[in-house]
């Protein structure tokens, strides 16, 4: 059976001066630092035998995928299954205004962290991403594929691949900006997983999805 690798790349830092949870909102570009992160991810993957580059339809993912595809002279295709998770608080500042954790009107959205009650169920995210991963693996069989997407879907896919519970502490996700989570396959079976942070040198000044300090 052939060996294939599917790399799950998280997008780079986003320009987000309003410090809101942008989620699936359109029009959010990478920041200047985010573009530099994307180039570092591309440099990291440049020696690999990449057969296809695919990404979430959101702009930040497309912009992260661009230098990776260019390094291998490949087109970029989009896949709706790679999109960011749904979230009730999209477009709001977390912990502020109408998105305050202390607002009793919001308590129902935090009632069940196992689902989770504030957004797209964890198992649904895993199902759609794993489906996209297996399609990419089949198309790139014997070589390698790159999928550019978002932190939570990547992390849940990793937890599932490792047989760990999907419920987790968001502060402990090992999926930083422009990180590369690599799923190694023999045939259609995952046999191992690797993780790299090619943009780590740029983390000190970076911000997360809601505009807070990354480190």
Automatic annotation (TrEMBL):
Coiled-coil parts of chain: none
Domain of life: Bacteria
Gene3D superfamilies referenced in this protein's UniProt entry, alphabetically: Phosphoglycerate mutase-like
InterPro entries xref list: His_Pase_superF_clade-1, His_PPase_superfam, PGM_Phosphatase
PANTHER family in the cross-refs: BROAD-SPECIFICITY PHOSPHATASE YOR283W-RELATED, PHOSPHOGLYCERATE MUTASE
Protein name: Histidine phosphatase family protein
Organism name: Brachybacterium equifaecis
């Amino acid at each position: 059976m052939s060996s294939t690798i599917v790399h799950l790349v998280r997008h780079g830092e986003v320009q987000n001066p309003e410090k809101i949870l942008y989620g699936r909102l359109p029009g959010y570009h990478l920041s200047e630092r985010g573009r530099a992160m994307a180039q570092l991810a591309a440099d990291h993957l440049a020696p690999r035998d990449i057969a296809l580059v695919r990404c979430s339809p959101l702009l930040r993912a497309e912009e992260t995928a661009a230098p990776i595809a260019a390094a291998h002279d490949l087109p970029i295709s989009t896949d709706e299954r790679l999109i960011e998770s749904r979230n009730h608080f999209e477009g709001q500042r977390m912990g502020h205004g109408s998105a305050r954790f202390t607002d009793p009107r919001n308590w129902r959205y935090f009632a069940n962290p196992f689902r989770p009650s504030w957004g797209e169920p964890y198992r649904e995210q895993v199902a759609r991403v794993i489906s996209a991963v297996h399609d990419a693996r089949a198309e790139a069989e014997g070589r390698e594929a790159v999928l550019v997407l978002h932190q939570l879907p990547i992390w849940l896919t990793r937890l599932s691949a490792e047989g760990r519970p999907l419920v987790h502490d968001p502060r402990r996700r090992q999926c930083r900006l422009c990180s590369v989570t690599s799923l190694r396959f023999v045939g259609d079976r995952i046999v191992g997983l690797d993780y790299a942070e090619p943009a780590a040198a740029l983390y000190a000044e970076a911000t997360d999805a809601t505009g807070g300090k990354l480190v």
